[in-house]
Design a protein that fits this description.
Strand order of the largest sheet: 3-2-1-4-5-7-6
CATH class of the largest domain: Alpha Beta
Distance between the termini: 23 Å
Structural class: alpha/beta
Radius of gyration: 19 Å
Strand content: 15-25%
Order of helices and strands: HHEHEHEEHEHHHEHHE
Number of domains: 2
Largest sheet: 7 strands, mixed
CATH topology of the largest domain: Rossmann fold
Shape: globular
CATH architecture of the largest domain: 3-Layer(aba) Sandwich
CATH superfamily of the largest domain: Vaccinia Virus protein VP39
């Protein structure tokens, strides 16, 4: 999702996160709907989900602006766009690079862009480009997960920190980044102001889960986090004792499986930074 060939995290038109996106969006649907509500899409408006993934939020936006509005979802990935066309029947879906979005100024009343700005090479330029698509007074919202560290093992913070640090090391080495490049996404508010947005606001929601966990909760934690984000990829960065303990805690067949513990308590943050395009920023 960048003007350069491929995004800074390896994104290309053939890259797909379909399963992970669906697991997260289904798991966090109540909080994501609340986050989208901060953008306040209204019936009859034209709205854009820039970096729409599999299209669930684009479909929710289409419902909000119905019956006379227009919702468009845009994603770089061909496979994301294909699935979004199926999962968002109320929205029009395009496969395109959001840093070169094929729309003119004054095209939309609202633009939503979630967990995407950290994938582009020049966040400020991309936010500025997206803001130009807005009518004067239109709002752009940037949703971003994990400004704060997640909590999985409430009973063992040291192990949790070791696992999260191992995951960051994996990404640093895979994409040739340093720690500052991975964490500078916390400055989304600064990027929004540097891009010329006005009346910039910040709101952070907590996604919180305790026992009893739903099937959607269990699917997200097991398949997306334990197998998808952790698993063998973090093994080289953990000492043997921590690796063995992590395996026990994340194996559904093990008596120590963390999702079966009465004291399992999960927290993660989801932040929405929003701002307006004024006539002066056209």
């Amino acid at each position: 999702m960048s003007a350069a060939p491929g995004g800074r995290l390896g994104d290309t038109a053939t890259r797909t996160y379909n399963r992970k996106l669906e697991l997260f969006n289904r798991f966090a649907e109540p909080e994501l709907r609340q986050a989208l509500g901060l953008l306040d899409p209204q019936p009859g408006q034209r709205v854009l989900d820039a970096g729409c993934g599999i299209g669930l939020l684009a479909d929710w936006m289409a419902q909000a602006v119905a019956p006379d509005g227009l919702a468009i979802g845009l994603d770089l990935s061909v496979l994301h766009a294909r699935d979004a066309a199926r999962m968002a029947p109320g929205a029009a879906i395009l496969q395109a690079d959001l840093t070169r979005a094929p729309f003119g100024p004054d095209s939309f009343h609202r633009v939503w862009c979630a967990n995407t700005i950290n994938h582009v090479h020049d966040p400020v330029a991309t936010i500025r480009q997206l803001s130009r698509l807005l009518v004067a007074g239109g709002r752009l919202a940037l949703g971003q997960s994990l400004f704060l560290p997640e909590m999985f093992f409430a009973w063992d913070e040291r192990l949790e920190r070791a696992v999260l640090a191992a995951n960051r090391r994996y990404y640093r080495e895979k994409y040739g980044l340093d720690e500052r490049e991975l964490t500078n996404v916390r400055n989304v508010l600064g990027w929004a102001r540097a891009a010329g947005l006005r009346n910039v606001r910040a709101r952070t929601l907590l996604i919180e889960r305790v026992q009893p966990l739903s099937g959607l909760d269990r699917a997200y934690f097991t398949e997306c986090v334990f197998e998808g984000y952790w698993g063998e990829r973090v093994r080289p960065y953990l000492d043997l004792a921590d690796w063995r303990q992590l395996c026990r805690l994340t194996d559904p067949a093990d008596p120590a499986f963390c999702l079966n513990r009465d004291d399992f308590h999960h927290l993660q943050s989801y932040t929405v930074i929003s701002g307006e395009r004024t006539a002066a920023s056209a």
